[in-house]
Specification:
Elements (H helix, E strand, L loop, with lengths): L1 H11 L3 E8 L6 H15 L7 H18 L10 H7 L4 H18 L2 E8 L6 H17 L3 E6 L4 H8 L3 H4 L10 H14 L3 E2 L1 H11 L3 H14 L4 E2 L1 H24 L4 H12 L5 E2 H8 L3 H13 L3 E5 L2 E4 L4 H9 L1
Parallel strand pairs: 1-2, 2-3, 4-5
Antiparallel strand pairs: 6-8, 7-8
Helix pairs in contact: 2-3, 3-5, 5-6, 9-10, 10-12, 11-12, 13-14, 13-16, 14-15
Length: about 325
């Protein structure tokens, strides 16, 4: 809904929307990714004479950012004199100048620019700080440049710690499991388009088993669809597919996350399950591990950084993925 409202606003201005997506990973180099996106924006803009000065400003900003803070990614010819001229020691200011130049050319060309950044919680602190600073300046000047970011629950604290004014320049929308009505539509509508239907009890069972989590619905319905005969999917068909559905999640979706953890981290998560109810307190986890809270706090931080758990409330933690506790119970049995 948030993305739809934002895009509707920009389209109502008559501006064309230019979009570039990034996914933050351990191997992603942020500066080359941003400068590559900026160059692509330039190629999509009009080549009218009136834009040449704006284009040169963007290119200069790209040179300064790359030469100063990502010299290993230089792909253009540069003399020693130019290298000295473009060199900067202020990362945030240089990054801001790039966004300002992009915003000004977008406004002049009657176009809007949007960066989509996924897994934003994995950005380096200095990168997210520079990004927020740049967006703040662009917002103040009314340039048609925007960011839509997505991340795990820790992103609220992560962004707030990077810049104290971050809450004023971002609009936050929490995306959770589907409502029951949304889940029913997700199950029923695709089947109807293929001239099949579900018995009401079959739909209720899928919702119960998946907790209305979108990916789980997709995976469960995939197994049911492959196993069911006839034009009507029954409760029996769903029940008959549950084992295969769970095995698929355990051997893929859950296992990939589990195997990223060290033995100490796995023991920490088992101790969370032993609390009996989630979210659980860090003190109860420590008690189950027969450790002091200070001894296990580094493990907690590591698991939060890996995106497996998050601080649900002050002093409480939970898994970021639904039903991960049930997987751990099956894994240990």
């Amino acid at each position: 809904m948030m993305i739809t409202r934002i895009l509707t606003f920009f389209f109502s201005t008559g501006f064309a929307m230019r979009v570039r997506g990034l996914e933050i990973t351990d191997s992603l180099r942020f500066i080359p990714a941003i400068t590559t996106a900026a160059n692509r924006f330039l190629r999509n803009l009009s080549s009218k004479e009136k834009l040449k000065n704006y284009i040169n400003k963007v290119l200069d900003a790209i040179k300064t950012l790359t030469i100063s803070f990502s010299p290993g990614d230089i792909t253009f010819q540069i003399t020693a004199e130019e290298k000295e001229m473009y060199y900067s020691t202020d990362y945030e200011q240089t990054f801001t100048e790039l966004f300002e130049s992009l915003g000004s050319i977008a406004k002049e060309a009657c176009q809007s620019i949007c960066f989509f950044i996924d897994e934003i919680q994995y950005m380096r602190k200095e990168d997210i700080s520079a990004l927020i600073c740049a967006l703040h300046r662009v917002s103040q000047k009314g340039y048609p440049l925007m960011l839509i970011g997505a991340g795990l629950p820790k992103v609220f604290q992560f962004i707030g710690n990077a810049r104290t004014y971050a809450e004023r320049i971002f609009r936050y929308e929490e995306i959770d499991s589907l409502t029951d009505d949304e889940a029913r539509d997700a199950i029923i509508v695709p089947a109807e388009e293929e001239c099949k239907k579900y018995e009401p009890a079959a739909v209720d069972e899928i919702i119960r088993e998946t907790g209305s989590y979108p990916y789980f619905i997709q995976e469960f319905c995939y197994q049911v669809w492959n196993n069911a005969d006839g034009d009507t999917i029954s409760l029996k068909d769903v029940k008959g597919s549950e084992k295969q559905y769970i095995e698929t999640l355990d051997n893929g979706f859950f296992m990939v996350k589990f195997e990223r953890c060290t033995d100490r981290e796995k023991n920490f998560m088992y101790a969370m399950v032993d609390c009996g109810e989630l979210p659980c307190t860090i003190s109860n986890v420590a008690k189950n591990m027969q450790k002091q809270v200070t001894q296990i706090s580094p493990i907690r931080a590591q698991l939060i950084n890996k995106g497996l758990i998050y601080a649900a409330k002050y002093g409480e933690i939970d898994f970021t993925v639904p039903k991960f506790d049930e997987f751990l119970i099956r894994k240990r049995s």
